[in-house]
Amino acid sequence: MSVRVRVGTVGFPVRDKRRVLAAVEVVELADGRFTPPARAAAKRFKRTWPAAVDATAQSSLFLVDPPSGGAPLPGDPGGYGGFQTSGENLALWERCTEYAMAVEARALVVITPPSFTPGPSNLARMAAFFAAVDRRGLMIVWEPHGPWEQRRAAAHAAEIGLVLAVDPLRDQAPESGTAYFRLGPFAAMGGRLGVYDLERLAEAAQPFADVFCLFDTPRALDDVRNLKTVLAGGAPDTAGEDGEDDAGDDSEDDD
Description:
The chain has an eight-stranded parallel barrel with strand order 1-2-3-4-5-6-7-8, surrounded by four helices. Helices cover 31% and strands 17% of the residues. It is an alpha/beta fold. The chain has helices at 17-23, 39-46, 87-102, 120-132, 150-160, 195-205, 220-231; strands at residues 4-10, 26-29, 54-58, 107-112, 139-144, 163-166, 178-183, 210-215.
């Protein structure tokens, strides 16, 4: 079976967005993690986007974790969070999906914080929420944080029709046609991924038809370049420096 692996970054790990877009095949946009940008602004941003680079987009954390104050959100602050099927939460979901559609996202990524634990009440609210909302044809990816046992998270994701995001260096992705690999800052412990881990990533991708592999690692662009080299059958450079230390900037309003 032929597998397609899209390799990219979570957000923009360096200030020069053009440099990132020249190196990656996909970017997970983090601009929507609180209040998603308006549709018009998202469309303007997308017009600067190379056709060869795909996008995924994060949804608002306020769907799960209510704002502590000061967030520019309409209605009752108590209507946000906890996967409530309130008017406020449903309207925020609509804004998240509008943003994702405007940037032509391949997936909408829902990240739940450690406070969202795997108890029966949380599972029921989450299932009810995703039964109520319009997904607008988007693949919905879920990354749980906190005390989730991987098998239980995978079963819950399958039950409500979500793709579970995994770090394949720690956990096996559930069987499906599509996998969403998401490697966080601790995957490389401050440096680049080594050859062994890059080869493990390439091997983990093989059972799937379509794989998104997103790096949120300390040297994400190096990891992108080296994994692409391994996937192409070459030998990666895991020793040199490429000046990747300048801070990233996830905002969309500075091209």
